[in-house]
Amino acid sequence: MIPQHDPKITPPARCGNDNAASLAWPSAMSAERLACDAPGMARAAELLQAGALVAFPTETVYGLGADAGDGRAVAAIFAAKDRPSFNPLIVHLPDLDAVARYAVLEGDAQRLAQAFWPGPMTLVLPLRAGAAISPLVTAGLSTLAVRVPGGRVARDLLARVGRPVAAPSANPSGRVSATHAGHVLDHLGDRIAAVLDDGPCAVGLESTILAPGADGTRLLRPGGLPAEAVEACLGAELLPPQVTARPDAPGQLASHYAPRCRVRLGAARADPGEMLLGFGAVDCDLNLSLSGDLAEAAACLFGHLHELDRRGAEAIAVSPVPEAGLGRAINDRLRRAAAPRG
Ligand code: AMP
Ligand code: MG
Q1: What is the pLDDT of residues 116-131, one digit of tens each?
Q2: CA 131 to centroid of ligand 1, rounded, Å
Q3: What does the pLDDT look like over 33-60, one tens digit per residue?
Q4: 293: part of which helix (H) or strand (E)?
């Protein structure tokens, strides 16, 4: 186990400038900080099986895990995040066979699963009758959002736990997602049992959420799997989300992913009091990607928002990011970070 108050928390692996490489995430709290070695993995699995909350790394962002069949454990996720109970959770499973035990996986859903799992894609599927999933997970819906995450640690953990694990992003509801164990400890460290620390997340954006249906597949939330790749696999265009009174995905809430300070988009330069979050060859406080690489920008996005907030920016101005591939998901997160707060 890593000592709890170690200030040398792993900085981002690759980010847009030298400033970013020296980022550190100071933390002081009570959650166990577990290394991803055999004893750490065993401890994390044991805690989850006992109904505790354990944050763990996936290739997208850190998830806040609980046994999806244990209503008390799932309720603790909502309490820890201060999350509205109408907002259902994604269940994480180790492979397609496990998914088929809890949800109906056929047609387009099956094709997508075979093409993109394990990976940054969530499918909203009909819940299998009698599946041992707490109704808190689905918020009472007849559908279940499921994902087979990529990354050795997440899959090893799920195999060890042997139960479906509900895991929203490991951050207070509505705030910037956690892409380092230090973010989790800073914001939830006094509310959870443990975090498995595997350094920064490779993708850095949440999963793409898709809802296959009779009339086609809907894109409920853009994310780490580009919509273009999904459309190429299906040979059809994705449908937009249906507008309902109740949001189907947090990506549909106007204000989400928000740092404490204001956010201004499409900025050529910083105004007085602002810090500039750059993209491409611009003079800025932190750069998402000096070379204009969208995968690098996605991996850095949440970490840089956390860091500019920590530096006490009055407002964050953000350079334009192209609206293609991962840029669509990056801009989606930025628009919600910049939206008026409720
Ligand atoms: P996050 O909270 O960032 O992990 O995002 C997970 C999101 O998946 C939830 O907030 C939901 O909005 C969405 N989701 C989960 N279950 C369902 C479902 N059955 N139908 C539609 N969307 C869902
Ligand atoms: Mg989230």
Answers
A1: 999 999 999 999 999 9
A2: 18
A3: 999 999 999 999 999 999 999 999 999 9
A4: none
Ligand lying nearest the CA atom of residue 77: 1
| pTM of the model as a whole | 0.85
DSSP state of 341: P
Residue 18, amino acid: D
* Cα–Cα distance for residue pair 195/116, rounded to 1 Å: 27
Cis-peptide, bond into residue 118, ω within 30° of zero: yes
Both tokens assigned to 108: 């387009």
For the segment 71-114, what is each residue's pLDDT rounded down to a tens digit? 999 999 999 998 887 789 999 999 999 999 999 999 999 999 99
Residue 141 near ligand 1, beta carbon < 6 Å = yes
Q: DSSP code of 310? A: H
Q: Are the C-beta atoms of 206 and 62 separated by less than 8 Å?
A: no
Mutate to test the pocket of ligand 1, among 248, 302, 332, 336 (most ligand atoms within 8 A of CB): 248
Ligand 1 atom at minimum distance from 127 CA: 19
What SS3 class is residue 77? helix
Tokens of 36: 């991803």
Q: How many CB atoms lie within 10 A of CB 82?
A: 11
Q: Which amino acid is at 66?
A: A
Name the pLDDT band for 6 (thresholds 50, 70, 90). Answer: very low
Rounded CA-CA distance 4/26 in Å is 11
Q: Assess whether the C-beta atom of 174 lies below 6 angstroms from ligand 1.
A: no
- How buried is residue 273: exposed, middle or buried, by Cβ count under 10 Å (0-12/13-18/19+)? exposed
